[in-house]
Amino acid sequence: MRWIPGARQRDARGQFLLLAVVALAVVALAVAPVLADHKEVSLTGSDFEIDTNANLVLDDSSGLDWATVTEERRGDLPSGSGDDSFGQGSKEDTAVPAVVSGSIPPNKSDLKTFGVYQEENASGKFLHLYWTRVQDPSGTTNMDFEFNQSTVLSSNGVTPVRTAGDLLITYDLSKGGTVPILSLREWTGTAWGPPENLSGSGNATGSINTTAIAAGNSDGLGSLSARTFGEASINLDVIFDEGQCDSFGSAYLKSRSSDSFTAALKDFIAPIPVNISNCGSVQIEKVDDLGDPLAEATFVLYIDNGDAVFDAGDVVATDPDGATLTCTTDATGFCSIANVLFGDYWVDETVVPANHDKPTGLPAQFAVAGTTLVELGPYTNDRQRGSILVEKVVAATTTRLDGASFALDADGNPDTTGDQTAIPAVSGETGVFCIDGLLYGDYTVVETQAPSGYLADTETQAFTVDSKSDCSNRSTTPDLTFENTAQPQIVTSAQTPVTVGADIWDTATLSGGFNPTGTITFTLYENDQCSGTAVFSDTVTVDAGNSAYDSGKYTTNAAGTYYWIAAYSGDASNAAVSGSCKDAGETSVVDKEDPTIVTVAVTPVTVGADIWDTATLSGGFAPTGTITFTLYSDSDCTTAVAGYSSSVPVNGNGDYDSAKYTTAAAGSYYWIASYSGDTNNDPVSGSCGDAGETSVVNPAVPSLDTTPKLLPNDDATLSGLFGTPSGTITFELHATADCSGEFIYSETQNVNGNGTYSTTNTTVFITEDGTYSWLVTYSGDANNTSALSACDAEQQVIDFTPLFEIN
User: Fold this and answer.
1) CA angle 785, 788, 792 (to 5 degrees)
2) Of 236, 241, 252, 431, whose CB is crowded by the most CB atoms within 10 A?
């Protein structure tokens, strides 16, 4: 470590002002003393080389010298009218020496350079000084190094105000001498006290150069003639009062032209700020595991008894006034302990901030030596953390469930998952879940996923973490218990299809429940919205756990589609579950009945008579509706008889007659009987040409009377003809009794109605006896059949006497 140089500038009065504060630091060297290599006059325990013939380079194989260190160096103002010095008879005991300018000519007392370096090694702490003066001096000059506690400038504007306890190290050379005597004096408040010979006690050493030092070996100080460079080493332990804190903030070099202590002061090199002390301060930094400042941590220093183990032998350290060396961190995370005498210490945290762990690495060893500020830390107090153990059970039981997921939730709303921290399951603990690493505070826990087959517990539970724990050392006693209700399933199968009048029922199979109890209610509706009043309801007890349960039976009285809903009531451990309208398997189809119809039509009849049909309906379910009878005049049933229609109402199974139809033409008539059906019965119809569905209407049958005449003419009377008859009537006269052979006379006349038709024969005469027979034939027409007289009904035996009439 080195002193940082200050800077000076001249003010309006020509005085030099200090513009920067310099700090004297310490370098701790982890090397043993190298005194075995020292052939010079180095101080015992120091690694710094003080040569018999003072120089600035390292001559031994190891160690320190001015060329190997970075010292604090300050030069004097140039000689001449611009130089400053002490004047007006100022002496060492002058509290405020007078500062003058230009009064020191270049002579033996004219100073050039002042250097300071502080060393610390395993053997101790040492202060090294050097000076240079004007070249080719004409005589001996003594040097004094003054160390002041205060940095406040006195009234001369250059030197600090003296304070009792300030130190003066004199560098005295006898005339022509080359070995200085270094002595220590202490300011009493009015004068310097008696000298303490440090050289004689072995606590200081020094030398001057007896030969010239070339510029290349002067560490930048230029060529140095003999007796212009002097150096010294001082054991710092001897300059401090034991058990007291001494601190010096300023140092400067001055010259005396005589070896008499009371001689007048000559030149000086302006003071530089230093920090030489046997006491330091300790600053401790405390943070938490986030690196944030941590208040309320108390630290205590203990004196290290040298055994490298913190134990009862390490007593609490105190300052020179006997106060315990302790401090407590503030909101910035820092605290400081002042007036800590140089030495080896332990530091320990005796009061740990609430809800934090004591850091590892404490107690810790450290040393206060050679510097005024020891920075310790930052020491990290981890924030104490706890855990939450969550238990998952079946509702209303102590049976634990595995497979649930939980999370810490920042806002208590399980629907906002972005603020959730997952809770892992505890290994080997079925149904127990744990999260640790939780800072003390209030938390809410939500269930984010239920075990398969269970409903999540939607309740958000709060828990305060206020004790240290982690999942590895938790007992199985939970902090929070979440209950999951089993979510059973219900699968139903209704009886279907059936025919109206049959029974229907529903079967519900309950599965996935946890030892389910309760009831299942079956409700039956007639509409596909399952609204309004149910037609049937039945409740059965769940007494066999997960199993199939049948509803009671419902006897149908109307065809159609029926809709079941089966609902499980649930219990303390099982959630209710219900089917929905029109679920698969929940429809009972009730089909209509299929009745039969058998018909028998009236047949045969003669034209002009009435015909009708009789239909027998059977197999219907309380049938209603109508039976419609349709009459056709053709065998293809394409031409309905005009003006005829017959429908009769149905009221149950039985025989139903159509309306009567009065025939107006002979022929075959064809019936078809159709049942309309109703809400409970399908329609049914006969077909054209069905057996029993034809009414035959026969033509009318007329009678024929004949009146034979002796003169071969005949009368034939037609009667019983229907309508407007047509056709022909033919008279044939045969000369045989059996009408065989050729007729001897024939005459044909048109028929135009009932009546007598007579021949008009005027040309054929019977001229001989015999048996003569008339054969009269009526041809018939569309409404009348043909007619033929019997041959023997109109025979005449002609013998001309007597004549007889053939009828």
Assistant:
1) 160
2) 431
